[in-house]
Amino acid sequence: MTTIHLIYGEPAVTALRQALEAAGRPDRVIALRDDLTVGPLRDIDVAGNPGVAQRAAFWERLGDAPPALAHDDCAALNALEADDSHVVIWHTHDAAHQLALRRVCYRLRDVPQRLNEVRLTADEISGPSAAARIEARLPDAAPISVLRITRLALEWQEAKFANGETRRWRDNTFTSGSFAELDALIVEDAVDGWQFAGRVAARVMAADNGLLVSDTLLLWRLRELAAAGQLQLRGETEMWRSLELNVPRATLSPA
Predict the structure, then answer these.
(1) Which residue ranges form the domains of the chain, and what is each CATH number?
(2) Full strand arrangement of the beta sheet holding 244-246
(3) Mean pLDDT of the chain
């Protein structure tokens, strides 16, 4: 029986494919690209894909992310359900990986004997030696217990039902939030006067608050804040290189 490997994120997918090729393994790799930590989730697994259409519309609003990625992930999971191959889910402790793990467990909860996993650290899938590190972990694929699959599938259902705009992963628990929280972090972190937007974004992204955000999402929030009059932008608003921002403190309404 063949084996299908799933992992979230383009760099990790590339490293996993290189690892399998180096090991002489003809296994398939499915790339999961939809960042489930942001945007609507409700009905994402419902037949007819109404939730996927909502996520596609969300990514289209952001502009830089292809809206097809939500459809692609759904199509890949549909095909996975119709297959009978063993499945190995590779994941780190990051929020996007943990949500992808829970979604796969939910979709394959009726065939738990197919599900296996490899738990990775973030360092193992980054850098030029990622493929070699992953190749060394190939023998570590282990079955996921039925009890754990049931729990992870339930947690995925809870995340979908909450349907927050953002999802944090802290202390092994997901909590839902809003883009307003992210907006507040951006505004609070900005110093007086014009400054490079990328520096503000880097500080927000590095904050240890369980909220992992992409530069694409931050650029979108900057544009939304500028449209709402909460900050000013100058430069190319679709890229970081020359973009500057200014927060007119006197115009801010009290928190």
Answers:
(1) 3-167 (3.40.50), 178-251 (1.10.10)
(2) 195-196, 244-246, 232-234
(3) 89
